[in-house]
Recover the amino acids of this structure.
């Protein structure tokens, strides 16, 4: 620590140390009986449109099949002209 400011490397070590301590605190029996690997769940599912928007990506949501070709074309044009990411969310009926 220099001048009271922590470097990114020190913060990374603290975070990794915390995750290691947390994972070591789980007993092997509890881990083996778990349905999922600890610390990897995506429940509830993130709103990927908001994540993409936060990364300054072009986004669109398609709810009708007839809209899909136009939205995909717009996404391709955006990628080719703006040189940034695009995410198309396609909603389907359950």
């Amino acid at each position: 620590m220099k001048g009271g400011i922590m470097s990114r490397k020190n913060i990374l070590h603290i975070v990794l140390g915390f995750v290691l301590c947390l994972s070591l605190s789980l007993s092997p029996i509890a881990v083996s009986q778990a349905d999922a690997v600890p610390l990897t769940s995506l429940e509830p599912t993130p709103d990927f449109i908001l994540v993409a928007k936060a990364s300054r990506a072009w986004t669109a949501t398609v709810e009708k099949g007839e809209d899909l070709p136009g939205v995909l074309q717009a996404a391709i044009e955006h990628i080719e002209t703006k040189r940034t990411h695009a995410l198309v969310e396609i909603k389907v009926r359950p």
